């Protein structure tokens, strides 16, 4: 139960220090704050799944799931995914140093041509990835080139980083180009690439679950206070039905993520791919639906930045397609199930 105790501690800390004014200021500021990143690193949150021999706590990767639920629930901005996951999986990364950025053309299948590509020839990288989270703030670029993970200094010759617009209030993006850049470390292995992508998918599903829960909590509070015709609107039958639907979707997503985390710890590569894709596919749709209903129950106020539900909705939409939306992942899930059946 240690992961739940840690999640409770994270919730307590964010409730005390990450209040509405601070949260909205950071969301308005574009999704990056060096002070917040340093604060969370000092608390040890980024070292949870890092092996002990590398200075971390050494907890299993599945323990990160409940933390990401809290990150979503509190709308925490910044490179939580990159800072928490990459040092746990890739050697040579310091969880207490500057954040790593994941340069991965595999964030989507459907829009692969728009995202770009990277190739490794000998020891030289070439290509461009059009959208990389927190690349301009990173101390190291973790580049996926085919079946090899490359660690690259952002200041190295042949590396170019250009800021691009972001529709995600919790994330800043950049375009990263390589023109004969030389990595300082190469880590070959399709296994590692698959694990990075699968765990990224699963942790994003957990964050989406937290977004749904946070939007639900704020909506329940709002309809219990907002009055019309002399009584709270939460007493009207139509509002009750919509809130009940929100609660059911949020609880279902939360339970699915918990079950997926339980299965993921000992899963083989193919099973981990299936588990993570299933969780992310459902999360992509369920979280957006909960946030849409939250907007509706807040009325016209729900579309303003004064109401947190608007931020939850924008964040859910942004994360929905990262490492696959429901449509893309359903094809992946179907192919995986058919392959598994043929191998039986």
Automatic annotation (TrEMBL):
Keyword field: FAD, Flavoprotein, Oxidoreductase
Names of the cofactor(s): FAD
PANTHER family named in the record: ACYL-COA DEHYDROGENASE, ACYL-COA DEHYDROGENASE FADE28
Family label: Belongs to the acyl-CoA dehydrogenase family.
Any Pfam family matching the protein: Acyl-CoA_dh_1
Organism whose genome encodes this protein: Pseudonocardia ailaonensis
Keyword Electron transport: no
Entry superkingdom: Bacteria
Gene3D superfamilies per UniProt: Acyl-CoA dehydrogenase/oxidase, N-terminal domain (1.10.540.10), Butyryl-CoA Dehydrogenase, subunit A, domain 3 (1.20.140.10)
Designated name of the protein: Acyl-CoA dehydrogenase/oxidase C-terminal domain-containing protein
Domain named Acyl-CoA dehydrogenase/oxidase C-terminal: residues: 198-334
């Amino acid at each position: 139960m240690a992961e739940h105790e840690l999640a409770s501690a994270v919730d307590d800390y964010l409730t005390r220090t990450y209040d509405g004014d601070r949260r909205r200021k950071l969301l308005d500021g574009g999704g990056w704050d060096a002070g917040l990143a340093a604060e969370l690193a000092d608390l040890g949150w980024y070292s949870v799944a890092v092996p002990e021999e590398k200075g971390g706590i050494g907890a299993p990767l599945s323990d990160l799931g409940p933390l990401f639920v809290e990150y979503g629930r509190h709308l925490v901005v910044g490179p939580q995914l990159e800072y928490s996951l990459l040092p746990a999986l890739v050697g040579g990364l310091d969880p207490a140093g500057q954040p790593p950025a994941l340069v991965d053309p595999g964030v989507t299948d459907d829009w692969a041509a728009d995202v770009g590509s990277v190739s490794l020839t000998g020891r030289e990288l070439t290509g461009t990835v059009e959208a990389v989270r927190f690349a301009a703030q990173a101390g190291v670029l973790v580049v996926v080139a085919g079946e090899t993970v490359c660690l690259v200094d952002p200041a190295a010759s042949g590396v170019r980083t250009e800021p691009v617009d972001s529709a995600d209030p919790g994330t800043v993006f950049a375009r990263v180009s390589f023109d004969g850049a030389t990595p300082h470390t190469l880590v070959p292995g399709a296994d590692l690439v698959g694990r990075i992508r699968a765990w990224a998918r699963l942790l994003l599903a957990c964050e989406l679950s937290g977004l749904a829960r946070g939007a639900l909590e704020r909506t329940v509070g709002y309809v219990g206070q907002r009055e019309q015709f002399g009584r709270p609107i939460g007493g009207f039958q139509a509002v009750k039905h919509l809130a009940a639907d929100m609660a059911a979707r949020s609880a279902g997503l939360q339970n699915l993520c918990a079950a997926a985390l339980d299965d993921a710890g000992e899963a083989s590569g193919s099973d981990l791919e299936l588990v993570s894709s299933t969780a992310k596919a459902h999360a992509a749709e369920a979280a957006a639906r909960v946030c849409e209903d939250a907007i509706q129950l807040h009325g016209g106020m729900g579309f303003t930045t004064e109401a947190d539900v608007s931020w939850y909705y924008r964040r859910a939409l942004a994360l929905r397609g990262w490492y696959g939306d429901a449509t893309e992942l359903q094809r992946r899930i179907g192919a995986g199930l058919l392959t598994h059946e043929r191998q039986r």
